[in-house]
Structures are given as structure tokens and as C-alpha cells.
Design brief:
Blueprint (H helix, E strand, L loop, with lengths): L3 E2 L1 H8 L3 H9 L6 E3 L2 E5 H11 L9 E4 L19 E4 L1
Antiparallel strand pairs: 1-3, 2-3, 4-5
């Protein structure tokens, strides 16, 4: 059987407020198990959230510098303004 955590335990493990985890449950951003009126979050779901949120660092030799496009498909910002001209330098 899956190792189940309460909302408070899941929030503590993710270092979030319980209100955030409750909102995720309400919006169905996380899978959960109903036990009567109680909501439980499987440990596997908590691990998935952590793994999906992990951002790997760039190697030390690669840095973003202005002057060249790193991603030609991203030529506009979210607000429609021209995006800064960034590129990778090795």
C-alpha cells in the first residue's frame, strides 16, 4: 500500500504552507486519496513534485551573454515587447 501523508505533512516536506497544498488538491494539480472525509497525498506524488521542480544548474563554462539569440523561437517577451538578445558563451 502507498505511503500516505496528510496535507500538513506534505506541506512540511515540500516546505510550503498547508494552504498551498490544499489549493493544489482543490485545483487537482496533485493526485490524492480520500479516506472518508480526510485527504491524503501519496509519498510518490510528493517525490514527483520535487523532481519536476528541480532545475539543474548550467555548467560553469556556459553563461548567458547579451548580443546573440540563444533561442530564436523566443523573440518576444510575455508582454509583446522584443525580448533581450541573449546567447550562450562557452
Amino acid at each position: 500500500m502507498a505511503d500516505l501523508r496528510t496535507i500538513d505533512e506534505a506541506a512540511q516536506r515540500l516546505r510550503l504552507k498547508p494552504k498551498t497544498v490544499r489549493r493544489w488538491v482543490f485545483l487537482r494539480k496533485v493526485s490524492y486519496v480520500k479516506v472518508g472525509a480526510s485527504v491524503r497525498i501519496p509519498e510518490a506524488e510528493i517525490r514527483r513534485i520535487i523532481e519536476e521542480g528541480t532545475v539543474l544548474r548550467l555548467p560553469r563554462k556556459i553563461r548567458l551573454i547579451p548580443g546573440k539569440m540563444a533561442a530564436p523561437s523566443r523573440n518576444r517577451s510575455l508582454f509583446g515587447d522584443p525580448a533581450p538578445d541573449w546567447s550562450y558563451r562557452e
